[in-house]
Amino acid sequence: MIPTAARLGLLVCHSCSLVNRATERDDLACARCGAALHKRKPDSLLLSWILLAMAMALYVPANVLPVIESGSLFGSQRDTILSGAKFLWDSGDWLIAVIIFVASIVLPAVKIAGLGLLLATSQRRSTWRPRLRARIYRVMEAIGRWSMVDIFVAAILVALVQFRTVAQVQVGPGAIAFAAVVIFTMFAAWAFDPRLIWDPVDGFDE
Ligand SMILES: [Zn+2]
Fold first, then answer.
1. Could you read off the pLDDT of 76-131 as tens digits, one per residue?
2. 129 CA to middle of ligand 1, Å?
3. Phi, psi angle pair for 147, to nearest 5°
4. Rounded to the nearest 5°, which phi and psi values hold at 188?
5. Torsion over CA: 99, 113, 139, 147 (sign)
6. Are strands 75-79 and 68-72 parallel, antiparallel or unpaired?
């Protein structure tokens, strides 16, 4: 049997990292800072599923609705992320078009698929390739830290598309949906407790 903190009756405080001894009581508080102690994040899977479901639901409007609405003397123009990327591609800005396509369409889809895989396998207490799944989790976390890049990219898109119009440019509802997708996937990854990957492997049952 692999000695884990939970099996040894030890709980690490998430706030101050003090190692506490578990007792019979459930409502444990850290002996040093008073923060609540848990063997695993409470309701990790449920919370993570809810956040992921919201991200999935908003992924569609984020790509279908316009992110930019611009008006000029020659009429109004509404661009989705994809049409904006295509405009940049057609006007020769291939690198920026590819960056926007990858950061705004591919990465969120990869994040949603990766998190869905982690949640589904942990839910079923799967013992399938835990090292691979642990690596997927680390990649998800790393992408989460870069997620603000997505929004930054969307801002660049707004600035660039402005060049083709004379009059006002407005952020469309797709941009709000897009920002929400980024935020929900980030929180879904944060809510997931990666130790759930190893519990079925160790035979640990809370
Ligand atoms: Zn503490």
1. 778 888 888 888 899 888 988 888 888 888 888 999 999 999 999 999 999 999 99
2. 33
3. -60, -30
4. -65, -40
5. positive
6. antiparallel
Output the CA angle 152-192-29, nearest 5 degrees.
115
> Which residue in this structure is represented by tokens 């680390």?
138
User: What SS3 class is residue 60?
Assistant: helix
Q: Measure the CA–CA gap between 58 and 180, rounded to whole angstroms.
A: 7
Ligand 1 centroid – CA 20 distance (Å): 8
Residue 41 corresponds to which tokens in the numbers above? Answer: 């994040």
Ligand 1 center from residue 36 Cα (angstroms): 8
Residue given tokens 């409007």 in the structure block = 61
Contact call for residues 171 and 195 (beta carbons, < 8 A): no
pTM of the model as a whole: 0.84
- Taking the centre of ligand 1 as the mean of its atom positions, its distance from the CA of residue 45, in whole angstroms, is 24
